[in-house]
Write a structure and sequence with these properties.
Layout (H helix, E strand, L loop, with lengths): L12 H16 L6 H12 L2 H11 L6 E2 L12 H9 L3 E3 L10 H10 L10 H5 L4 H8 L3 E4 L2 H12 L7 H7 L20 H19 L4 H11 L12 H17 L3 H8 L5 H13 L3 H14 L3 H15 L6 H7 L2 E5 L7 H11 L3 E4 L3 H10 L1 H4 L35 H14 L15 H10 L2 H13 L11 E5 L2 E8 L7 H12 L4 E8 L1
Parallel strand pairs: 4-8, 7-8
Antiparallel strand pairs: 1-3, 2-3, 5-6, 6-7
């Protein structure tokens, strides 16, 4: 039996985890809390242990309603008393309407027939449930239906702890079961994600609106009206902690409007965003509407403020096309000069494997590497820099890296002088891998980490080239961690990175960037296009 399968959680593990969050809230956020949240904390602490456990069980589940007779938790035991305690303290509500979803179709059909209602055999559960009332269902099949109350405060406290709506108490369980390991940060060293109440409320509002948007079934006009009321006003007072959520919400809505051919409305949404993605969509829509002068103006803005090679390439290419309709993309020109490799049609759908087999037949060592050889190398080489100061940028124990990772404020100079001693360098990487095996790192992929490949890679890489590439990647973690060639091949002192393109595949801007950068730093790159024979 594996070690992971032997891990046993305490019977009330969820209570332990929420207590951790409450200690964090007490340490960092009491001055930011409103009266309703302070009252929640006090009322929760006054509950019996069994009542606290029952509330956490119910509030952490996705379903909003629960049939009392189906509630059974061995660690709580008889739930009659905890239910009453929760009712009295305002943590539980008895529900009589809108609960059809928790009853089975068979129960709905049975009740309908008892009431003399004709039910078609082809009717769905929702269609049958619409014929009868929730109260009648509860009376016929249940000892009562309840719902946890004050769940928004419960969710908001978790939001303060994590700084996002995408995490919850489940993260504790995933870690405790050994499915994910994180670099250890002491509880007392964690820093609050939000510094002010305004920061928390702003990001919470955007997050809640995004959840509503992705789940709503209302019309496009109603969605846009909601955005104008709840999200658009934030654009004039947007705080740094909310920028990414705001940009994401605007882009998602804009694309939805485009799919509905509401181009003018999509422009309205994109206009309050200066992300590269939104600027690109803005330029594309303006071009489609025949507003070329304005499209060119915004393409120039994009060229000024964007740093992603893919975004920069779009704006450069757009402006070049307007200047000369005969202009050819640099990436297209590069692809036209690719060498041709013939492989068997059996490799259709797994082209990299076909090219590996081809180079192996030519006497080369060949391995599929893509971005991972570079990411794994840099992740191990810069491990101490990424996690050097665990008292800054860590807000909860489930972070892959400090929150400022990849930003301009992310400090630390790579010890590039260590690159000249390849034996010592390889030993350093091995020791860091052994000491931190399995721990989450934004760069390291433990499944693809191969030290036989790493040794071959380091044996042939020129020191100046390795230093230049590592330094540039380290300085551009937010935009340049992708786009490296697919394969690494080596035969003696000869080596190259190989980009593989199937007959109908295209070269992206970030791929073109790295090909050019590698070549300029003494690293051979071969661009091959496949021909099936």
């Amino acid at each position: 039996m594996s070690e992971k399968s032997e891990i046993e959680l305490s019977a009330t593990y969820y209570w332990d985890h929420f207590s951790y969050i409450l200690r964090y809230i007490d340490r960092h956020y009491l001055p930011l809390l409103q009266e309703s949240e302070i009252v929640f904390l006090q009322d929760f602490s006054d509950l019996s242990f069994a009542a606290q456990c029952l509330f956490l069980r119910l509030a952490s589940r996705r379903s909003p309603y629960f049939r009392i007779e189906k509630l059974a938790y061995p660690e709580i035991g008889d739930i009659a008393r905890p239910l009453q305690v929760l009712r009295s303290a305002g943590f539980l509500m008895d529900i009589s309407e809108g609960t059809e979803s928790i009853f089975t179709k068979q129960e709905c059909v049975s009740l309908a027939k008892k009431q003399g209602i004709k039910v078609l055999s082809s009717a769905s559960k929702d269609e049958v449930a619409a014929l009868i009332s929730s109260a009648d269902l509860i009376a016929a099949f249940s000892s009562g239906v309840v719902a946890p109350a004050r769940v928004e405060v419960f969710a908001f406290l978790q939001f303060l702890f994590f700084g996002t709506r995408s995490r919850d108490l489940t993260d504790f369980v995933v870690r405790d079961l050994g499915h994910r390991a994180f670099v250890e940060v002491q509880e007392e060293d964690l820093k609050p994600y939000f510094q002010t109440r305004e920061e928390a409320e702003q990001k919470w509002a955007i997050s809640m609106w995004r959840e509503w948007f992705f789940n709503t079934t209302v019309s496009v006009d109603e969605i846009l009206a909601s955005w104008r009321v709840h999200i658009l006003p934030l654009s004039t007072s947007l705080l740094e902690s909310s920028i990414r959520s705001f940009e994401s919400a605007c882009f998602a809505l804009g694309r939805s409007l485009e799919r509905n051919k509401a181009y003018i409305e999509a422009l309205e949404v994109y206009e309050v965003s200066l992300s590269g993605a939104s600027l690109e969509r803005r330029v594309r829509i303006l071009q489609k509407l025949g507003e070329l002068e304005e499209a060119v103006a915004w393409a120039r803005v994009g060229l000024e403020i964007c740093v992603s090679p893919t975004e920069i390439h779009f704006f450069e290419d757009f402006l070049a096309k307007q200047a000369s309709k005969k202009s050819i993309k640099q990436v297209t020109s590069s692809l036209k000069q690719a060498e041709i490799i013939e492989i068997s049609p059996e490799y259709i759908g797994q082209v990299e494997a076909g090219v590996v087999a081809y180079f192996q037949s030519e006497g080369y060592y060949a391995a599929f590497t893509e971005n991972q050889i570079w990411r794994n190398f840099l992740g191990l080489f810069a491990w101490d820099l990424i996690f050097a100061d665990r008292k800054e940028g860590f807000h909860h124990p489930f972070q892959w890296a400090p929150s400022h990772y990849g930003k301009e404020s992310f400090a630390g100079e790579l010890p590039l002088h260590l690159l000249s001693d390849r034996v010592g360098l390889l030993n350093l990487l091995r020791s860091r891998a052994e000491a931190n095996q399995g721990a989450m790192n934004p760069l390291v992929d433990w499944y693809s980490l191969d030290f036989y490949l790493m040794e071959r890679f380091l044996t042939v890489m020129p020191t100046d080239g390795l230093a230049a590439i590592s330094h540039y990647l380290w300085e551009h973690l937010g935009t340049h961690v992708k786009g490296f060639p697919d394969l690494f091949i080596q035969k003696g002192d000869e080596f190259a990175f190989v980009e593989v393109k199937s007959p109908n595949d295209h070269l992206s801007a970030i791929q073109y960037f790295w090909h050019d950068f590698l070549r300029k730093n003494g690293v051979a790159v071969r661009l091959v296009r496949l021909k099936y024979v």
